[in-house]
Amino acid sequence: MFLHCFGYGIKNLLRSRDYLFWSLGFSIILATLFHVAFGDLSKGEGFIPIPTAVVLEESCPQPLKDVLDTLGEPGDGQLLEIQYASQEEAESLLKGKKVSGILFVGENVSLSVSGDMTYDKLNQSILQSLAESLHGSYEAVSEAAARSPEKLPQILAALQKDAAHNQEINYAGRNLDEGLTYFFNLIAMTCLTGSTAGAVTAAASQANLSELGKRKSVTPGKKQVRILAEVAATILMQFFAVSISVVYMWAVLGVDLGSSAGYVLLTVLAGSMAGVSGGFFAGCIGKSSIHVKIGVLMAITMLCSFFSGLMVGGMKLLVQRYAPWFNRINPAALISDSLYSLAVYESHTRFFQCIGGLFIISALFILAGAAMVRRQRYASL
Question: Which of 198, 300, 340, 349 is least enclosed by beta carbons within 10 angstroms?
Fold first, then answer.
């Protein structure tokens, strides 16, 4: 009986155009639009070297000159676009707004900027910090040379290295495109749209909500087995639909979801279970029509997706700050967190915590819904 009902549930969903559109077609369309909007977010222009005029005085130490050459060396780490010039030439360049500032390098390092270039405050601030750093480095070298002359070569070698004040550390060995978080939340939303199919499954088992439910109520066989079979079929169909969307993002759009394909599919399975089981539970509550319940479920799905960051990128962080408990029970946040942890963390501890939460939520919804349907009795049909 289980296999018969399971196969029937699969066929019924394959014939539903509405279900196929919302679980498969809509997610593919939205993923394509997201790719157009966010797909190249990580391929931006990057840092643009700051155009700088440098006036070298006769007293300029060679190590400082070498450091400037390193900062102006073309490549990924280039900080400055240096033009060595006389004072008159440098002032002409600054007046013509062709450089952001003038570095005067001698025994002291000083900076000259133009008050007319208010739009260039960021570059001017960076140059000011650099001038202070170079001046401090020279003083340190001078003091070290006076105290320990034998260590001067090592100090000069360290001074010439291209040191950064801020270092970006990625714990997964890869850069995470900010646009990926929107794809993570899109996958979460797609999983949760299975709630509508879960509600339809519940309604199809209740004689007071559908004609099909009346026929099923008078058929022989265990109601629990039939319900579990139909719920399992719905979960499997939702899993395949979301998996096709994920493969489309992965293979066609080139969205980098990481190399752990098995874990990604496990997340899709857990998310699909949470969506379908939540809809099934909601479909078993009350006597409202299935259309009303679907409308409520869609509203809840979009609300959960909103708080997980689908519409506003930083919303989940805001929720984490003021109501962290909500992120632990929000299925959309758990799904997106699972995918995020795969992309960022080498350890899978957080991933399995999110997956475990999704499975627990699914089990509670299925058991509660099955218990309510089982207890239903009808005086007449």
Answer: 349
Residue 368: exposed, middle, or buried by beta-carbon count in 10 A (0-12, 13-18, 19+)?
middle
User: Residues 31, 35, 41, CA angle at the centre, nearest 5°?
Assistant: 140
Does residue 344 contact residue 209 with C-beta atoms inside 8 Å?
Answer: no
| pTM of the predicted model as reported, rounded to 2 decimal places | 0.64
Distance CA 373, CA 202 (A): 8
Q: Where are the alpha helices (DSSP H) in 193-222?
A: 194-203, 211-217
Residue of 241, 229, 293, 211 whose CA lies nearest to 14: 241
In angstroms, rounded to a whole number, what is the distance separating the alpha carbons of residues 269 and 175? 26
pLDDT tens column, 135-170: 666 666 566 556 665 555 565 555 545 444 444 444
Q: In this structure, are residues 178 and 42 in contact, taking their beta carbons and an 8 Å threshold?
A: yes
Residue 50: strand pairing partners: 80
**Sheet (strand 101-105) strand order:** 80-84, 50-56, 101-105, 109-112
Instruction: Give pLDDT tens digits for 202-220.
Output: 877 765 555 555 556 556 5
Asked if 305 and 297 touch (Cβ cutoff 8 Å), the reply is: no
Residues 372 and 280: beta-carbon distance below 8 Å: no
Within the chain, which residues score under 50 in pLDDT? 41-42, 44-45, 160, 162-173, 378-381
